[in-house]
Amino acid sequence: MNPERTWQLWRRVLREPALAEAVIAGDVLERAAEFGLDPEQTEIAAEYAKNGPGVKWAVDAYRYRLLRVTPGAVAEGAPLTARALRQLGHDLDALAAGYVEASGWADRGPYVYTVTAEYLDHLERTLPAGPGSGPLLDLLRLERTAARLIARSARPGPAADGPTADEPAVPGWTGRGAVVRLEHEILGWLADPEGTSLADAPAAPGALLVRLDGSAELYTLTGIGGPAARAIEGLAAGLPVERIAADLGLDPSDAGLRGLLDSLTDWGLRDVTSC
Amino acid sequence: MTPLGIGLQYNPEVAEWFPFHESRIDAVEVLLDTVIAPLDSPHVILPDRLAEIDALVAAEPTVIAHSNYGAEFGFEPLERTAAVLRHVPAAQRFGSPWMSDHCFYGDGSWSDLWSSPVQFSRAEVNRLAERASRLQELLGVPLAHENAAYYVPCPGADLAEPDFLAALVEKAGTHLHIDLHNIHTNAVNFGAYTLKSYLDALPLDRVVEVHVAGGSWSGGVYHDWHDSRVPEPVWETLEDLLTRSRPGAVVLEVQGRAHSSHTRELDPHADAELILGDLERAALIWDRVYGPHSRRTTALPAAATTTAGPGEPA
């Protein structure tokens, strides 16, 4: 039996409840077509089926571990969102379990920021509206942006079952920063999350620059105005400075714009060598 | 390799309350997976664990690097595994005298590892030996493979498990980390070998570390949960193994619910007694085999050993 195919089939058994049930029940031979198993895979599955109780234990243990590690990973990758969810009365273990089930019991293991971004995607789609849900979504988008920046900057390549392609590089932009648009004034909560309630954050449009800074905390947040946000979004989309200046009704030599560009260069967000 | 003596694994369920710094432990085995930074982050060690780990390294006991999730035996390029990206630099930072990991398949996942023993086949000896050899070269100190406890064998084996391990270390030039409780667990559950027959098939001069632990019965299966005292068959075999090999350390593993919801939460008071009792028993066996001054914490000062004449006790 080919070892790699054996391992791949075993991973399917762990993740696909119907396939696992067939192996545990010992009727996987009869149901091989249902799971798209070729003859070699069927032979492997039949071998596993000889130890049904062991397979059941392994599947249960896999789920136990995944449900146990996912909340921890998310708390590490998105600590502010985790804190806000607790503050707003959500059950983090139940939310993580919902995500794990919806994701097909996939396990990203040591790719904490990748799983964080996917989990926050899931929450954005599934969290019901309620007190504080608007500011919570702002916070969620903020940490998702940070998680994606971290994962993209650090990762040598895709995980076995992670994203399959890196985004194309933008000339002049390093990808180490991004703008997050906000619909609520959450800076007060960010400054004092224990002393304030996120649910009290008033509606107010705003923008933050998230930039990787090489520190232990990984990134820095900077409050920015509307024109700066548009300029940075333009740079991240690969627009030339002249076009960005024109869109803002500024001269390319405008002191404010040049100051912003210099700061972005100093922070390692602009790559002037490739311009 | 200088023999260290008796150690205790530094894992999250014990590290919070066991007095590592006040205990006379010859070595501390750090579970790398709990301190390394995510593979999609820029750090090697989690920044919020760095000070704690550096303090551990700066203290007296030698720190041994050990892992579950290196994934060096998976099918991804070796260069993308946690073993290369995190464990090698972490072990080097700790000054670990060797590093060990389990004989599991693995990739960018964690939760499936414990159910994924490698296939004990001749084909896998060749593939895994090449990867192990490269990893040891990157590491710069001995790499040891730990025999795993498992509950579902990987289909396709054409070698007995100990014969597979013997062939692997022979071909790769790597080393063995013998977990006596894992052998005991598999022997109880599958009956394919005994502790003695397993060890008899191995090149015991390759053993750099030994694990001892306890386990529990659940659902008619004996589990390697590290949640109870070391059982007698393991103690009996430890003395035999030490007599026939010269490992650098014997390390005790104690854990609570890391493995299963069916185990118990550790109790700092009662389990400290359990740990100290098992450490003492391990030290007694070690000393009986290698002598009263053979451990890091019991070695005589260098001056005393150098002034002893031929034939005199040092």
Automatic annotation (TrEMBL), chain A:
Highest taxon in the source lineage: Bacteria
Name of the protein in question: DNA-binding protein
Organism: Kitasatospora saccharophila
From TrEMBL, chain B:
Alphabetized Gene3D superfamilies for the sequence: Divalent-metal-dependent TIM barrel enzymes
InterPro entries named among the record's database cross-references: MbnB/TglH/ChrH, Xyl_isomerase-like_sf
PANTHER family reported for this sequence: UPF0276 PROTEIN HI_1600
Name by which UniProt lists this protein: DUF692 domain-containing protein
